[in-house]
Design a protein that fits this description.
Layout: H1 5-18, H2 23-29, H3 36-42, H4 50-60, H5 64-69, H6 77-94, E1 100-103, H7 108-111, E2 122-125, E3 129-134, E4 138-142, E5 147-155, E6 162-170, E7 176-180, H8 185-203, H9 209-219
Antiparallel strand pairs: 1-4, 2-3, 3-5, 4-5, 5-6, 6-7
Helix pairs in contact: 6-8
């Protein structure tokens, strides 16, 4: 990854302001002497240690790639909104607070109702257009009002290029593209992180919240039916 010291320092200043934190708090967290950031900005030939860069990223809860190579001050409001969305999705997925499902190719008609009845493996992607091919299952997260968030990887037609895309879909309405790793450089690292988090989440045994409630009751030796609960 490319390191741009000027961008790195500017991003620290911007993040301190946005998150209403003090530079002394950052320096204490990173276990460096007071005034370290000022000296780093002032001394042209001085470069931060890898440990300091990692500490700054952890302190602000941002990706290292984003911190050292993406000018956060130039992000559009939409990009900032999507970054915050991706951060929440990543954190909630890693804490198993979300219930992702892996959908197979049969789900393509729900996502893209205009696709051919006989699915041939092609899908429309924002990154590569028509005749893109799925490179993974479609990972779906149920949201409110019959909506779902969709994350999947696609290959370009007759090319080795690959992209991971995020869409939102609502029953009876056209799906809407949100972002991808293809040319969305400010978002790419977080999209990749989200995708990896979903894959890792689905690799482990899962119990749905609906049945976890019942199993938790059993763990408390509670076998009684809830009042008003019917078996049909």
């Amino acid at each position: 990854m490319d390191f741009n010291k000027s961008i790195f320092i500017d991003n620290i200043s911007l993040l301190l302001e946005r998150k209403e934190r003090k530079i002394s708090e950052l320096e204490d967290y990173a276990d460096v002497s007071r005034g370290y950031v000022s000296r780093l900005a002032r001394e042209e030939k001085t470069k931060p240690s890898i440990e300091f860069v990692v500490s700054v990223a952890n302190f602000f809860h941002v990706d290292i790639t984003e911190l050292i190579s993406c000018d956060l001050n130039e992000l559009s409001p939409a990009e900032e909104y999507l970054i915050n969305l991706l951060i929440k999705l990543i954190e909630d997925t890693k804490s198993s607070s979300l219930e992702w499902e892996a959908k197979t190719t049969e789900f393509i008609h729900n996502f893209q109702p205009d696709s051919d009845d006989d699915y041939t493996g092609h899908i429309f992607s924002n990154s590569f257009g028509e005749k893109s091919t799925l490179a993974s299952d479609i990972y779906s997260l149920r949201l409110k009002n019959y909506s779902s968030l969709l994350v999947f990887s696609v290959n370009a037609h007759e090319s080795d290029e690959k992209s991971t895309e995020v869409w939102i879909s609502r029953l009876g309405e056209p799906s809407e593209f949100l972002c991808s790793t293809h040319q969305d450089y400010s978002l790419a690292a977080k999209i990749i992180n989200l995708y990896s988090s979903i894959v890792d989440y689905l690799r482990h045994p899962m119990v749905s919240s609906r049945y976890k409630y019942i199993l938790d009751a059993f763990m408390r030796n509670d076998f009684s039916d809830d009042e008003g609960e019917m078996p049909f």
